[in-house]
Every structure is written in structure tokens, then in C-alpha cells.
Amino acid sequence: MTIITRRYVLVIVDDYSRYTWVIFLRSKDEAPEEIKTSLEKITVLLQASVIIVRTDNGTKFKNQVLQEYFNSVGISHQASSVRTAQQNGVLERRNRTLVEAARTMLIFSRAPLFLWAEAIHV
Questions:
Q1: What is the tally of structural domains in the chain?
Q2: Rounded distance, CA 9 to CA 109, Å?
């Protein structure tokens, strides 16, 4: 088993099926490229086009690179209002579930907490 040296996690949830993809990032700068790659994979995997992408109002999602990509493939980008977790309710609950499950596994196994990415990855 290799140790994942990632500090951030990008969670993508399909609104229809609630299927979740978890992507580990070294820095937030990796987010736009990972989002583009993931959307292309999801389009092939589901054999359906992505119509709308909903994100929080973070700067990692509101940049020129992603905006140009969304415009080029015909994806509508919707950003939630600032400090309203209620608008991202499904994703917020999924994040909380992942973190709590990872923390529980690490505490139960008496493993160091810096192995959170490995616990989520399992």
C-alpha cells in the first residue's frame, strides 16, 4: 500500500444517482484540470452529457480556465451563494460522511490521523 500524500479532496456527486467520485489533490491549483478530466471520464462512463455543474462559490471553481472549458462543451455552471451550505446539502452531507467514516476507521485501528486519505480511499 502506498501512502497518498494529498492534502485536499475533491468530491463529485451525480445528482440523479448520488454516485460519488472522490479525487485527491496535492493543492487546490490542481482542481480545474481534475474537474475537466473527471467530467470527460464521466461523460464516457455514463454515456450521457453533463449539462449543469453546481459548485460552491470558491475561487478554485470560479476561474477563467474552467469557464472557458464549460463554455466550449456547453456546460452551465451554477455557483451557490456565499456561506450557504444548505444549497449544497447533498454534497455537504457526503463530505461529512466521508470524513466521519475515515476518522472512525483511523481511531478504531489506532492509526495516525494523517492517513485520512488512505482511509477515505478504502
A1: 1
A2: 22
